[in-house]
């Protein structure tokens, strides 16, 4: 049904004032604390139809400049926001919180910022009666600041509501799950400030992976060391005190000893039962904001999938019975059950769906993990871009999961997601812009299917030493994706050959349902018709514009421009000058480091063949070998490493031709021969 046009405006708080400090609840960034603040809010319903409506909200800052804002209101008739753009939406029953995105945090005195949303309603669609800017009431009064409402512990009637309130979420990985102690894998100990940083960014929950085995005594008691239990409790306490839900689990235990269930059934089960009995007892009086996950990525040695499903069901059932039988708050605590391998194949989803149905308990959720179509996520087998097959893999996995669980009233937590190895061995496993497209699509489809997503952060996103984001632009894109889409173009790079003549370059717009608003070079808007043309969804940059942007045409990125859209975060396009990369001869032992003059270019993928044309390398089933396993580029120091994993997989004495396909469009051949432990490389 088409919306009926409605022009219903509400203006509140024309000169409300308040002293706003950086500690104000709900604040995302730093806020000027020198003087009183004032605000004006204009709320306008622009379209309405049975069960739905569209609204715009404009906030004008009448006080000192603000760097970080949060606008809150409550629905009088049970309305709900279904999708928001140009702000982050945090739902909580009748309460609504809209927070700035990275690019619109600053609002100068007298300036305005605006956002919009679609909503649902039934009965009446009465306008809100008050708004709060950074926790202060916009009521037209002056003087002392009004108090920010503080709520007690959340209470949820069912798992669907609680899981919805966990979104968005993050893992604090490679820490309490690390083998050898909390700091053994290079991360600092978790602090309350770390949790406050996540909360300030807009996260509503954390997944706290915990590996217990190294802190567990021998059978038959399998006693968990008190210092371990209390350290976990300390982090849980901090999370709850900072209004973060928290989910704890048995993490690397899954492959350290739980996977031996088929081979040592009684002892493994006794240990599992003892661990969960101790954990359930320790936390049984905790608030509902704490939830339990049976175990991480269940797997069972020597079993076929169907048999693995049976062992997974056995563990999940024992976990459920122990927690529910421990009393206290565990009577109706949210419990999360994983599929075998946390996989989203239909045959993995069905057994968990059947089990949850049999439990007849509305405080149970299901969990899967998703790291993308594997060949794309690790760049193997000729999938360097987020193309149709990768998109179809995501769409299929999420649709199956939705149709099996969410459509039947069982909430879904995507307990881990990201790109495999991102930030661990280097961000170039998957080309940066292609990774951004994947991230945006994951979050979009998760919103459509009402999944809660827990990104896997093992320090690659938030630097836990400095409490700063390694890549603020990436984090802005992630944050925006919680509530809206962002646009893109077909590629985030334009390669200009230094020795060649610069011509016009065309790209295709990926609008994602948005409107294209133009291209900017810093604060300067490029002129359509002069600097670029737009024909349908084809964006063509003029040769003269690219020549100007390339400047002196030094190798590498000469300029970064932005395509902007009606919502979301702008899309960056890098203007890069390059010539063909030059590789040099090299000799190594066990592995090979090839001196490389990159000349501004980058590897797209790597192909390897023997002289007879057969595939060479660890992935014998494909000519295109895996990034970080068979090729490791170093763009800063000028080299390509041929790792030992590749060298060990090739035949002794037989030359292998490696072809490095580069994003600039060129390819470079290189010959590698292994003789015993010696490896020689020859440039073509």
TrEMBL record:
Keywords: Carbohydrate metabolism, Cellulose degradation, Glycosidase, Hydrolase, Polysaccharide degradation, Signal. InterPro entries: Carbo-bd_X2, CBD2, CBM2/CBM3_carb-bd_dom_sf, CBM2_carb-bd_dom_sf, CBM46, GH, Glyco_hydro_5, Glycosyl_hydrolase_5. Residues 32-141 form the CBM2 domain. SUPFAM superfamilies: (Trans)glycosidases (SSF51445), Carbohydrate-binding domain (SSF49384), E set domains (SSF81296). It comes from the Bacteria. The keyword Iron-sulfur does not apply. The keyword NADP does not apply. PANTHER family: ENDOGLUCANASE, PUTATIVE (AFU_ORTHOLOGUE AFUA_5G01830)-RELATED, GLUCAN ENDO-1,6-BETA-GLUCOSIDASE B. Belongs to the glycosyl hydrolase 5 (cellulase A) family. This is cellulase. It comes from Glycomyces tritici.
